[in-house]
Each structure stands twice: as structure tokens, then as C-alpha cells.
């Protein structure tokens, strides 16, 4: 049986009655137990302390114990994707969330799934910090399928919960699997890179970077940033995200050319960007920002730019300057004294070819991970809307005095 046929049968002929969250025959509002505590006064413990946007801390004691839905009262990170949280067990709720749960005729998990698709805009008051007052919150309607048959109603609610929770679990499993695979690929890549780029001191000739390349520091572009700029401003964020996060400028203050190797010179203690490199793929596309080093190979027949890019990327010769306490600011002299192995062009080509393949494989998973997760989320939202889109009665939203 297809999913559509199954769902059509599940909801075939189902009548629905709408109940306000203030209907105490179906819903318990447990706001009276909420208790805000300043961070400085909280006693550390194992109980999650909830605010408008998920867990804020872990404390000793609890305000509630059981299965509840938390609706942001104010401070939701997004008004379009309003903050709704499902909690179970002992927890502490502050006064930035409404605390509710279903009674005997309403499955609390079903209530949670439905409240995730409510448009809260009509119920919010206030300006910059929109607020969902209790008076408005209790006006929100929730569907009760088969209200004349409580047993069947709860069975339908439970089945809808099962289907939607299954989609959620599948998304979580996929995320875990792809994240694990990505981590394994990165470890494999790093292992082979280290093997391929490790040379004994006596095996090959060594030259300093100063001997094989020219070096130039970038310049500040803060006053020239433009969303529709012609040139990509190469800064540490651009390099550390492999080009996914970029700023633009119409001024090419520090031009870059194909095969230039760019290196991050400054980072926080134990940061992941220091000495990370990027190789320019085309002329007239980039401009170099300050604290990024621009390296141009003097003789490409001696040192291939792509080989130098891989060799300098997170090289231990530069990472040793990170003391783990202070921000690291590499100096020009420190960079130019890095020793570069001089090996045959054919061997450089072979190494570059292998690392290119590993790099492509790793990036394919990195790029595919958010895409696959987004597809699963879209699938979940499609079936959620299909299962929870009951015919709705006309509802008058009252004005709170």
C-alpha cells in the first residue's frame, strides 16, 4: 500500500473539532510552575533549563515533570519558524515559554506536531520584541479528530505521531551517517596527505618559501564592501569555509591572479583557519584582504602552485606558532622561512592528482550533507502538512484587553 493510500484511508471520513488551547477539558496550561533564575544564581545540575529557544543551562531541581510542549512567550529566534519545543521528564522552565500539555483526549506529541505548523503572527503583540501573551496563546486552536469517539481519536493521533516521528528519526539517522562518513573521509584524506607530503630531510632538496615564491600581504577593504560588488574579497572566513561565505567589493585594491596561493595569517587560539590555504582559479575575480598572505611561485617548472597550496595548507611549520592562549598573528618572516621540498615536477603532478581526488570526494559529502538533510526535512514537512491540514472552522481572533 502506498503512503498516499494509507494516509487517505487513515483520514477517510474523519471529522474534526477545533479546541482552543484555553479549553481545560483537553489542555492543561502549566505556566504557574515557571520560575526564572538569573544565570549567576542558578545551581549547577543535570536538569535542562529551558528558555524561548531551547536549553539555556543545566540546573539542580525542576519546575515540571512529565510530557509538555513549550511555546515561546517572547524572544523566539524566528517569527516565521516560531519556537516550539517538546520536552519529557524533569525540566526547569523560565518565564519566556508557555508550558502546556494534552489531557486524556489529546496526545501531547500530536499537539506538538500541530503547533509546529501554526502561523503565530496574528497572535503576537508588541513591536521589536514580539510577545505571545497567555491571553492570545489560549485562543490558538488545535484539531481533535473523531471527537465523538475518543478511543479512535487517540489511535489516529498516535498513528500520525508515529509517521511524523519516523520521518524525524530517518533524518537524524541520515545526518549521523553522513556526518560519520564525512569525518572518516577527512581522516583518510589527512592521513594520505600527510604521507604524500612527508619527506625525510636527506631525501630531497629543501628551499625556503622566500627562495621559491614572492609574498605580499593583503589590504583592508572594510570601506569598499558592496553586496553587488564585482570582486570577491578573500578573507579568513572565505578561505575557512572553502568559499561558501563571501564578501564583495567593486574595488580591486589588491589584485590576484590565477595560481596565486593565499594563506590565512591570523586566527583565534587553536582556531581551524590558521595557515589554511586557497588557490586562485582565474584572473580578475578576487581581491586580497588584510591578514591574508598572497604567495606567487617564481618558477612554476620548479614548484607547482597546486603542490605548494597542498603543502602549505595547515602546515605544522606554521601551526607551531599557535600557543593556544593568544590570538596568532603570523609574521611575514615566519611564513617565508617555511621549508619547501623540491621534488620532480612529475612527482608533484602525481601527488596533486591524488589529493585532488580525495578533496573532491570529501567536498561531495560536505556539500551533499545539507542538501540531503534539506530534502528529508521537506519530505517531513510535506507529510506533516498533509496529515495535519484538517478542514478549519472560521475563527475570530479576539483582541486582548
TrEMBL record:
Belongs to the type-I restriction system S methylase family. It holds the Pfam family Methylase_S. Gene3D superfamilies: DNA methylase specificity domains. Keywords: DNA-binding, Restriction system. The gene is hsdS. The lineage of its organism: Bacteria, Pseudomonadati, Pseudomonadota, Gammaproteobacteria, Oceanospirillales. This is Putative type I restriction-modification system specificity protein. GO terms for biological process: DNA restriction-modification system. Residues 17-182, 202-373 form the Type I restriction modification DNA specificity domain. One of its GO terms (molecular function) is DNA binding. The keyword DNA-binding applies. The keyword Disulfide bond does not apply. InterPro entries: Restrct_endonuc_typeI_TRD (IPR000055), Restrct_endonuc_typeI_TRD_sf (IPR044946), Type-I_RE_S_subunit (IPR051212).
Amino acid at each position: 500500500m502506498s503512503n498516499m493510500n494509507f494516509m487517505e484511508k487513515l483520514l477517510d471520513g474523519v471529522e474534526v473539532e477545533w479546541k482552543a488551547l484555553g479549553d481545560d477539558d483537553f489542555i492543561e496550561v502549566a505556566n504557574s510552575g515557571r520560575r526564572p533564575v538569573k544565570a549567576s544564581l542558578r545551581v549547577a545540575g543535570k536538569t535542562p533549563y529551558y528558555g524561548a529557544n531551547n536549553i539555556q543551562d543545566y540546573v539542580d531541581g525542576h519546575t515540571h515533570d512529565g510530557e509538555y510542549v513549550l511555546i515561546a512567550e517572547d524572544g523566539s529566534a524566528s517569527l516565521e519558524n516560531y519556537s516550539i519545543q517538546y520536552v519529557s521528564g524533569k525540566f526547569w522552565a523560565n518565564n519566556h515559554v508557555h508550558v502546556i500539555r494534552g489531557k486524556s483526549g489529546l496526545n501531547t506529541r500530536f499537539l506538538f506536531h500541530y503547533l509546529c505548523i501554526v502561523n503565530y503572527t496574528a497572535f503576537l503583540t508588541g513591536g521589536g520584541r514580539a510577545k505571545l501573551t497567555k491571553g492570545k496563546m489560549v485562543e490558538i486552536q488545535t484539531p481533535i479528530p473523531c471527537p465523538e469517539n475518543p478511543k479512535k481519536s487517540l489511535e489516529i493521533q498516535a498513528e500520525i505521531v508515529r509517521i511524523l516521528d519516523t520521518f524525524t528519526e530517518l533524518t537524524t539517522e541520515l545526518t549521523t551517517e553522513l556526518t560519520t562518513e564525512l569525518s572518516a573521509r577527512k581522516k583518510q584524506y589527512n592521513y594520505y596527505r600527510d604521507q604524500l607530503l612527508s619527506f625525510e630531510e636527506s631525501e630531497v632538496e629543501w628551499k625556503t618559501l622566500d627562495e621559491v615564491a614572492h609574498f605580499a600581504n593583503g589590504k583592508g577593504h572594510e570601506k569598499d564592501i558592496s553586496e553587488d560588488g564585482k570582486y570577491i574579497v578573500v578573507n579568513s572566513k572565505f578561505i575557512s569555509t572553502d568559499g561558501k561565505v563571501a564578501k564583495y567589493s567593486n574595488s580591486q585594491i589588491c589584485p590576484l591572479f590565477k595560481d596565486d596561493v593565499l594563506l590565512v595569517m591570523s586566527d583565534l587560539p587553536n582556531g581551524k583557519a590558521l595557515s589554511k590555504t586557497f588557490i586562485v582559479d582565474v584572473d580578475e575575480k578576487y581581491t586580497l584582504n588584510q591578514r591574508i598572505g598572497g604567495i606567487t611561485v617564481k618558477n612554476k617548472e620548479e614548484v607547482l602552485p597546486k603542490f605548494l597550496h597542498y603543502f602549505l595548507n595547515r602546515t605544522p611549520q606554521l601551526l607551531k606558532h599557535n600557543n593556544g592562549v593568544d590570538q596568532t598573528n603570523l609574521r611575514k618572516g615566519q611564513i617565508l622561512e617555511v621549508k619547501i621540498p623540491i621534488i620532480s615536477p612529475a612527482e608533484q603532478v602525481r601527488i596533486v592528482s591524488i589529493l585532488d581526488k580525495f578533496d573532491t570526494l570529501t567536498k561531495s559529502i560536505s556539500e551533499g550533507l545539507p542538501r540531503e538533510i534539506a530534502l528529508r526535512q521537506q519530505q517531513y514537512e510535506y507529510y506533516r502538512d498533509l496529515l495535519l491540514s484538517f478542514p478549519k472552522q472560521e475563527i475570530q481572533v479576539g483582541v486582548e484587553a
